[in-house]
Amino acid sequence: MIIAVDGPAASGKGTLAEGLARHYGLPHLDTGLLYRAVGWAVREVPEGPDFEARAIAVAQGLDAAHLRNLDELTSAEGGVFASRVAVIGAVRQAMRQYQREFAARPGGAVLDGRDIGTVICPQADVKLFITCDSKVRMERRARQLENRGLTVDRYALYHQIEERDARDRANPHGGFYKADDAHLLDTTLLDIEASLRAAIAIVDGTMAHKAGL
Ligand code: DC
Predict the structure, then answer these.
(1) How many angstroms from the chain centroid is the CA of residue 150?
(2) How remote is the CA of residue 213 from the centroid of ligand 1, in Å?
(3) In terms of DSSP bridges, do strands 2-6 and 28-30 run parallel, antiparallel, or are they unpaired?
(4) Given strand 2-6, what is the order of strands in its sheet?
(5) Mean pLDDT, to the nearest integer, of 205-212?
(6) Distances in whole angstroms, Cα of residue 177 to Cα of each of 8, 72, 131, 138
(7) What element of type H or E holds 2?
(8) Protein residue with its CA nearest to atom 9 in ligand 1
(9) Is this structure's pTM higher than 0.70?
């Protein structure tokens, strides 16, 4: 079973995807981490032709060594660096095969990102599109960062999230929209447990429907 989980920054899709993977005993790929790794590797290169060429080269040679420093990659700056490289078509293309191979593992997988249900796995068995009010997303991300002992400027964080949303929405190589056959799950008023219960109900319901039960 392949489960695709898409949604905007800090919508809780990663936590949900992890929970679904645990519940169904499936491997999980956080595809945002791949973009974060590429963005981090070229964070000091000024924008321009050289920036694109360097980002493409990193994406083509991406390996486990790039994914090691999770604290840096999952920071708020890591998200901004990721969104700078995610608009480069050749970067997206370089990472497509890896994501598709991950999804094609025997037994299936859970992948979360922005374009899983539309571009990476249009054939996924179940697609979820997560939405959440942007102020609630900011507050959740702020608490995550504070739990790591970091000091958070909520005003700046809110603007960072809005900036990323705008850049993601305008991505010409995106596919960052809800697939026609994706289930919409709004987590604004749900905590993690309630979101996961709702997601499991959608997955079970979809699979039972497909099996003609
Ligand atoms: O999901 P995230 O916040 O870790 O994603 C970081 C950035 O990577 C986000 O701004 C958009 C980009 N991204 C993407 O373009 N395609 C994906 N499948 C996942 C993430």
Answers:
(1) 22
(2) 36
(3) unpaired
(4) 28-30, 109-113, 2-6, 126-131, 183-186
(5) 92
(6) 9, 27, 11, 21
(7) strand 2-6
(8) 83
(9) yes
Classify 126 as helix, strand or coil: strand
Backbone conformation region of residue 94, classed left if phi is above 0, alpha if psi is from -120 to 50, else beta: alpha
What residue's CA is closest to ligand 1, atom 10? Answer: 83
- Kindly list the structural domains of the chain, giving each domain's residue range(s) and its CATH number in brackets, ordered by start: 2-208 (3.40.50.300)
pLDDT of 44 reads: 95
How much is the pLDDT for 198? Answer: 97
What is the CA(105)–ligand 1 centre distance, in A? 22
In 31-141, which ranges are E strands?
A: 109-113, 126-131
Nearest CA to ligand 1 atom 3: 9
| Residue 186: per-residue pLDDT | 96
Q: What is the pLDDT of residue 100?
A: 95
User: What single-letter amino acid sits at 132?
Assistant: C
Question: What does the pLDDT look like over 93-125, one tens digit per residue?
Answer: 999 989 999 999 999 999 999 999 999 999 999
